Amino acid sequence: MIDVSCFVGPWPFRTLSLAEPEVLRDRLVANGITRALVSPLGAVLQRSAQVANRELAARVAGDEVFAFVPVVNPAQGEALAELDAYPDSPAVRLLPGPHGYALDDPAVVEFVRAAGDRGRTVIVQVRMIDVRMAHPDVVHRELTADEVRGLAAACPKTSIVVAGARPAELAAIFAEPRSERLWCELSHCEQPDVVRNLINSVGVDRLLCGTHAPVHVVEALPAKLFSADLSAEHQEALARGNARAAGLLG
Amino acid sequence: MAFAIPEVPGGIIDVHVHAGQQFSGTRHPDDFLGDLAADARRCGISRLCTSVLGHNGYTANPTVAELDSANAQAAAAVERDPIYAGVVFCSPEHPDESVEHMRRLIAEGPFVGVKLWIARKASDPALDPIVAYAGELGVPVLQHAWYKTVGQLPGESTPADVADLARRHPGTTIQMAHLSGCGERGVLDVAPYPNVVVDTCGGDPESGMVRFAIDVLGPERVLFGSDAPGRDFAVQLSRVLAEDLDPETLNAVLAGNARRIYTRLGAA
Known about the structure:
The complex is a heterodimer. Chain A has helices at 21-30, 50-60, 79-84, 96-99, 106-117, 145-154, 167-173, 194-201, 220-228, 232-245, and strands at 2-8, 35-40, 66-68, 91-94, 121-125, 160-163, 182-185, 207-208. By secondary structure, chain A is an alpha/beta fold. Chain A has a single domain (2-245), classed as Alpha-Beta Barrel (TIM Barrel), CATH 3.20.20. Chain A is globular, with a radius of gyration of 16 Å. Chain B is an alpha/beta fold. Chain B has a single domain (14-23, 33-261), classed as TIM Barrel (Alpha-Beta Barrel). Chain B has 9 helices and 8 strands. Chain B has helices spanning 32-42, 64-80, 95-107, 128-137, 159-168, 179-190, 209-217, 233-241, 247-261; strands spanning 12-17, 45-50, 84-90, 113-116, 141-143, 174-176, 196-199, 222-223. In chain B, strands 1-2-3-4-5-6-7-8 form an 8-stranded parallel β-sheet.
């Protein structure tokens, strides 16, 4: 199973038992995850993500489970250089809420198009945590469905993965007409029958597995799939096939 | 996919369910209770302690008629399937009527507990007749609580309010809802009051909160709750299973503590 939305590192708001990559890797593997796209959790709050990227990239280099995904702020200069610094990364992650930019910023659109031209998938994070539980001084803006749709429409050749969205947001983001190169992951979707309902609203070919570990428990992903009781064909699509189509296997 | 349901003697007990809260995506809109019970049984859950907080969505300040309707729905669930154990929805804005519901449904009926939501904060003395009567009946009071950074509602209790309630009623067991919503601070607020237990639900499946609560309160004061159908049984179970608890602690959290605190569950 491919986890397309995972992080590594400590989290300033809460002590995480899986903050160390070795511990996290063991837990992922124990839960059936053979490959995890990981970004540095430290990049969420650091003013410049570059240092956190370098540290994590060095730490997971050559790892058979972890695939490094840099965090880039397209509103800052040298964003493309940061992307090009990691040519083996299948994707790049954007954190517009914590990093304080809009998806319709021309620099962002230009960056996402350029990432697509380089064959990179762009993971767009709608939220990191439930704002009700945020630190009072650190309440990040959550993306709207309209701005995510707008970015996808402006960059039709770029594969985009929507991460951290709720089911109702995904239904709005994937409403027709929609980009052919748009996917989403499940980490923030939870209620009875949520996967079955997302198959109906989003399409089985657009759903990817994501844990949002180590902030969320890894076990929530297999639990969600257990609840979904998928056919073997759908299970394979969510676990691997769709990640391959989204260009996330490198 | 690697997700194993633990074997718990007698089955898992979910102490936080709202069986009347139908949502739009249910498989059988005309048999929502059947879907919910089937999902629970698939996860090894044998009892669902369920309240109903309103017909179309949750009712923050229910009228007497809305309390009647909500508790009638809960009674219908209990009648429909033995997996459902009824929890009386009460309002401190209608204490006499609430106590009457408790008399009819608990003292003379099959219900097993009391639910208080957000009509008044738990620190408000208006709750006292309800909570005192729950103590007389020997049933727990499930009190909603949350420390919200944004969106705290006017009558919504914080764990500090729950601690105040527990201090006023040391003879009543208070089940503080929403462990993740209450956070570490909330657990510490109620730690000095042995008559407060916490349930494990509340928001996304954040890591570490169940372990923190067990370490601070002891394993005997933490109970599995899902908040279904707002949340998913298996995912909420996963936040407990992720903590690698020893078998004795796991059984206590998933069922043993509920059997001890919900004293009328065996007879329901």
